[in-house]
Amino acid sequence: MTQPTVIRRDPTALSLLRTALELAKTGLPVLPLRAGKVPFGNCRTCAGIPPRCGGRPNMKAPGPCLCPAPCHAWAAATTDPHVLTSPAWARVWCEAVAVAYHPGGAGLTVLDLDDAAAVAWARETLPATRAVPTTRGEHWIYRGAMTSRNAVRPGVDLKSSMSYARYLGPGTGHMVNLPDAVRALAVKKPSLARPAPHAVTAPAGPGVGECPHRTPVYLERGITMAEQRITEARSAVHATVYRTFLAVLSRHGRCGCLTETHINRLFTAAQTKGETVRHCMDAWTNARTMLGL
């Protein structure tokens, strides 16, 4: 396939494009990385508010990006040689420093082991698979896609769906199926507030004494309003659940008022709107993290 003239004049760009085309032939969706080994920024249309790309902002969409040039990170990854060699992509290949790929798009998962300690842990714990050396550690590649998640343990990231990994060569070893032990790494364990056995005090601060939220009417009204806010949501249910959890925790999360009964009431309200228990747990954990709880 003919490459644009600007690429034929740039040996580095030509080499990167050839690598990308070879990977695309194997069914691996690829994209260029710029300096810093990160994806190219969104185009002017998608950088606007609201963005108008079918890939949607913040790489939250299942993909692909519909822009003519690389945009929306992993959602730009493609196996189409006509797209890879198009004039719209020619400029970015000339500015690129590496090739990346979307593991989940090819039904793969990359276990990114960032240092020697992480590699040693994997060798002791997980079944061996294809391994690719990195600057400080290794990429272990398994057959099978899953949820991506960073920092699942010290020095270990999971890159699969809605993520990208830098291509560093074919590696060595036989690729095996994704084991349950790796899938389990991505499961977030909920951090739920526990019933307080007795009255507690709020965090130290000026004028703060014994927790005022122990007043039954005050707490009951807050939980009831939160349930109502969730059940009355007509759209953006995910966002409403998260914002409601955030509001409840910002008011009651530091003083020990919340019990599992209160939390179950909020989760039940969310589930009546179609949310899963898993999403409720994630939203609750994310809200606690946002507030530093």
Question: Could you explain the architecture of this structure?
Answer:
By secondary structure, the chain is an alpha+beta fold. Helices cover 38% and strands 13% of the residues. The strands form 2 sheets. Strands 5-6-4-8-7 form a 5-stranded antiparallel beta sheet. Strands 2-1-3-9 form a 4-stranded antiparallel beta sheet. Strand 5 and strand 6 form a beta hairpin. Helix 8 packs antiparallel against helix 9 and helix 8 packs parallel to helix 10. It starts with a helix and ends with a helix. About 10% of the residues have low confidence.
Give a brief outline of the structure.
By secondary structure, this protein is an alpha+beta fold. The protein has helices at residues 5-8, 11-25, 44-47, 81-84, 87-95, 116-125, 180-183, 216-231, 237-252, 260-272, 277-291, and strands spanning 30-34, 38-39, 98-101, 108-113, 130-133, 138-143, 149-153, 156-159, 165-166. The protein is globular, with a radius of gyration of 24 Å.
* Average pLDDT for all residues: 80
Strand order of the largest sheet: 5-6-4-8-7
- Please state the CA-atom Rg, rounded to the nearest Å: 24 Å
Low-confidence stretches: 55-62, 190-210
Structural class: alpha+beta
Oligomer: single chain
**What overall geometry do the principal axes of the alpha carbons give?**
globular
Fill in the keyword field for this structure.
293 residues; 38% helix; 13% strand; alpha+beta; globular; 5-stranded antiparallel β-sheet
